Amino acid sequence: MNATVVIPTLNEEKGIGGVVESFKNLGFEVLVIDGNSKDRTREIAEKMGARVVLQTGKGKGNAIAEAFKLVDSEIVILVDGDGSYPAEEVWKLIEPIEKGVAEHVVGNRFAKYEKGAFTRLNLLGNKLINLFFRFAYGVDLTDILSGYRAIKKEVYKSIEIKKSGFEVEAELTVETLAKGFRIAEVPISYKKREGKTKLRPIRDGFRIGKTIYELIARYSPARYLYVFGLILLFLGIATGCYVVYAWLNAVSHYMLALLTVLFIITGVQFVVIGLITDLIFRTTLEFRREIRQVFKRKEI
Predict the structure, then answer these.
(1) Residue 163 — φ and ψ, nearest 5°?
(2) How far apart are CA 113 and CA 189, in angstroms?
(3) Beta bridge partners of 113
(4) What are φ and ψ of residue 112, in 5° steps?
(5) What is the rounded distance in angstroms from the CA atom of residue 261 to the CA atom of residue 240?
(6) Confidence class of residue 150 from pLDDT cuts 50, 70 and 90?
(7) Strand 75-78 and strand 3-9: pairing?
(8) Angle between the 60-70 and 168-178 helix axes, to the nearest 10 degrees?
(9) Can you tell me the mean pLDDT for 32-59?
(10) What are phi and psi of 28, to 5 degrees?
């Protein structure tokens, strides 16, 4: 399968040369989407043999969206231009696609990261965001924010990217799952970046968490019912504990007891309805996936 390496950049003159050179040495076509860098990023990338396109919009998400429109390769490799991802490990990402195991492969940075690659705040934020994702989506992925990915053509041409910033990795993950494609993780090495980071941990972390919650509607709207149901159950348990405590102290709260029952019953109903609706939604996705596989076999 032919593959194109896509590198979104903004002021990455310290790292871009080595990144482009390493992928060119491996025989890949390299496309750099530059967000109007004020340094020598574009000049260095072109000198090393990359095709450089000046981004029309702003932000990493917009850069990737533009790249997906320009590229027509069977596989797109997404990688950052800061030198943090080893080019020689690209084959780990491509292998599951070539074997038909997945259509979207993510490099898991937590498998082997260099000292200084993460700040303590970044590491904690990444762990919390991934934990929230696994809880919200029920999908066992451990590094949804990784910038090193391999995506098959049928996936990247069907993905709708609406987020312009660093939320794009979360959006790519959710869009892949929502459209019924398979996603896999492989262990990779992660090195300390070259140059200054553009990521603002608190602000961007909040935006990414907000994006994960908002995108539940694309993946399975029924999962919102889980949240409401769990909130009501929590309220029911909390008020119930208070009612029992008061009763043990010879104080009765009949109206609050009725409210407790209402909270618990309604919460259970929301959770059950969510489970049923989510099951129907997931079954539909599986059916669409099987239909896609049938058409593939017919083409072969």
Answers:
(1) -90, 135
(2) 6
(3) 190
(4) -160, 95
(5) 8
(6) very high
(7) parallel
(8) 50
(9) 93
(10) -95, 145
